[in-house]
Amino acid sequence: MKFQWTRIACVSLTAIVLGSALGGCVALVGGGAAVAGMSALDRRTTGTQVEDEGIELRAGNRIGEVIGDKARVSVTSYNRIVLLTGQAGNDTDKQSIEKLVREQVQVRNVFNEIEVAPFTATLSQRSNDTVTTGQVKASLVQAKDISSSSIKVVTENNVVYLMGIVTARESTRAAEIARGINGVTKVVRLFEII
User: Fold this and answer.
1) Whole-angstrom distance, CA of residue 35 vs CA of residue 33
2) pLDDT digits (tens, 9 = 90+) for 101-122
3) Is 181 helix (H, G, I), strand (E, B) or coil?
4) How many other β-carbons are positioned within 10 Å of the β-carbon of residue 125?
5) Are the beta carbons of 186 and 111 closer than 8 angstroms?
6) Strand 159-166 to 186-193 pairing
7) Cα–Cα–Cα angle for 159, 109, 100, nearest 5°?
8) Whole-angstrom distance, CA of residue 171 vs CA of residue 193
């Protein structure tokens, strides 16, 4: 009986860790039902959602192998369109990173928003960006006139990037909501319009 409970605890912990690592903000409330429910509301197919996770992992690993600690880069994929944010020490590294990502299977397009700058993002700035992302997401959820589950939010140095598959009206409305968050200096829309 002890072995069974230990195994259940390990499986549960693994599910939680993988869910938070791969699912971003998908809460595991109610187990797999919540994850399935959120996936069902997403305008991407389940296969595309899995492809996006794979693109992020493979691209991040490849950047780490080739560039190492010469850059601090985040890779975000939505519907196989990739957003690169962060800093690189020089333009050559910035372009090399983009090339590495474009070489990944299934990538349709890349938006390279990497700054050529010293790695100046402090823990405080990263924390502020995380809080801003959370505030934008919460505001999108509260807005009943848009499909918030179809929008991915990334914040880098107070700039909010919005990705997703939305209508033209939802694009405008989401940008208005993001601009209304305290501390946001710019909103960049990278939406696919349906």
Assistant:
1) 5
2) 999 989 999 999 999 987 766 7
3) coil
4) 13
5) no
6) parallel
7) 90
8) 8
